[in-house]
Specification:
CATH topology of the largest domain: Spore Coat Polysaccharide Biosynthesis Protein SpsA, Chain A
Strand order of the largest sheet: 18-19-20-27-22-25
Number of strands: 27
Structural class: alpha/beta
CATH architecture of the largest domain: Alpha-Beta Complex
Oligomer: single chain
């Protein structure tokens, strides 16, 4: 059986201001109406002998991940929660241990949740081909035939061909991201592939090689899983044990050391959506070479990526730029500098700015809240509570609140009182009063909160 392992960690800082720590790129609809996570999960449909996917995610994203999968009818085997990401090698080790417990001969299909693959049929055919190599104990990675001398990807040099498996080779070398001249040399040589970060791995062989080359990592993962806690569909890894685990990729920990690595020349299209320039490259372009999303008006503008999340964006006489608007930030950059957006994120973080971490809209298990306005002595928020959900009982010692119901029905606990409020009704929560908000209805509840 093939066990899909969807890696949904990371913050996607190079896609700021849209991607942020609390709402990273894999949970955003970057190339279609579905999020990258949803596209990855749906790509599995049509594969034979496949189990329910195991998803590895950060604990802060647990309810968003679960909700996004539920909304497309995908039921995960489990969602493994990391309190802090430790890169791909430990994450896959945890998934391998879980898979072997159910099937000693399990094979892992490792899929980052933020990759774009449009030709799902070719992808599934390549997975089937790779599974034959995995059956004989090979650790298989998918190499992407390069279309240009890209410097943003690592490269894989193929070695001896597996004659019984077309377009399959032993791995001769893994190469870090090269400079432009070296990348051009790789493309001319014809024996190098882009490193996709996609793998098909016999679970038992992977763990054997991990214990051989990184016994410290293997031991930390065993402990973190043994001390984990099960909560419905979630498995919470022991934070202390997992934090002690070295942070390293599959490439560094295993693939560059093992003699069992193979690479298959992929026939499917692929992009890791690692920057705004990659979204421009893969997007649908107008007659002037622009990729546009949202409320955008262009005049005399060429080869730009322009995205509006709310407000009208107008651009005149520009070429080769990235322009991204969100509710609290605007990015303007040249496409050639798009890889350096993460430098801005680091500066925002160092300066204590909230924009590196979250949007104005913050999602919670019960719904979301977003900041509308704020001053020295007040704050205005818009709150949405899902049907049947409620916010925990609270008490504020330093502020009072006014709640105004915009639509839906609210059950309000205020001290010893319980109120049922509907559209255009309001209530006041005095300083120090215990209170709770609940949506007993069948439609979302929207309200405005004024805090003073």
């Amino acid at each position: 059986m093939i066990n899909p392992i969807i890696l949904s960690g990371g913050s996607g800082s190079r896609l700021w201001p849209l991607s942020r720590t609390l709402l990273p790129k894999q949970l955003l609809p970057l190339v279609s109406d579905r999020t990258m996570l949803q596209e990855t999960a749906l790509r599995l449909r049509g594969l034979i002998t496949i189990t329910k996917p195991v998803v590895i995610a950060h604990v802060e994203h647990r309810f968003l991940v679960a909700e996004q999968l539920r909304s497309i009818g995908v039921e995960p085997d489990c969602i493994v929660l990391e309190s802090e990401g430790r890169n791909t090698a430990p994450a896959v080790a945890i998934a391998a241990m879980l898979s072997i417990a159910a099937d000693p001969d399990a094979t892992l299909l490792v899929l980052p949740a933020d990759h774009l693959i449009r030709d799902a049929q070719a992808f599934r055919e390549d997975v089937s081909k790779a599974s034959m190599l995995a059956e004989i104990g090979r650790l298989v990675t998918f190499g992407i035939p390069p279309t240009e001398p890209a410097t943003g990807y690592g490269y894989i040099r193929r070695g001896t061909p597996h004659h019984e498996f077309p377009d399959c080779y032993a791995v001769a070398q893994f190469v870090e991201k090269p400079d432009a001249s070296k990348a051009a040399e790789f493309v001319r040589a014809g024996e190098f592939y882009w490193n996709s970060g996609l793998f098909l791995l016999p679970a038992r062989k992977y763990l054997e090689e991990l214990e051989r080359f990184r016994p410290d990592m293997h031991a930390a993962c065993v402990t973190a899983l043994a001390r984990s806690a099960r909560d419905l569909d979630f498995i919470r890894l022991d934070p202390e044990a997992f934090f002690r685990c070295p942070s390293e990729s599959i490439d560094y920990a295993i693939m560059e050391n093992t003699r069992e690595a193979s690479v298959i020349a992929a026939r499917f299209d692929w992009s890791d959506i690692g920057s705004w320039s990659s979204l421009w490259q893969t997007g649908h372009k107008d007659a002037e070479g622009n990729v546009v999303r949202g409320d955008v008006v262009l005049d005399g503008t060429h080869e730009c990526y322009v995205r509006s999340e709310g407000r009208l964006v107008a651009a005149i006489g520009l070429r080769g730029l990235v322009i991204v608007e969100t509710d609290d930030a605007v990015l303007v950059a040249h496409k050639d500098s798009a890889q350096h957006v993460k430098n801005i994120v680091e500066r925002l973080r160092a300066n204590g700015r909230a924009e590196w971490f979250s949007h104005r809209r913050v999602y919670r298990p019960w719904g979301y809240y977003e900041s509308i306005d704020e001053g020295d002595r007040y704050q205005v928020k818009r709150i949405m509570v899902k049907p049947g959900q409620k916010i925990s009982l609270q008490m504020h010692h330093h502020r009072a609140e006014h709640w105004i119901i915009v639509s839906g029905t609210a059950r309000v606990t205020r001290g010893s009182e319980e109120l049922l409020l509907s559209e255009n009704q309001s209530t006041y929560i005095p300083l120090g009063e215990r209170h709770r908000l609940e949506n007993p209805g069948k439609i979302p509840l929207y309200l405005i909160l004024l805090r003073q």
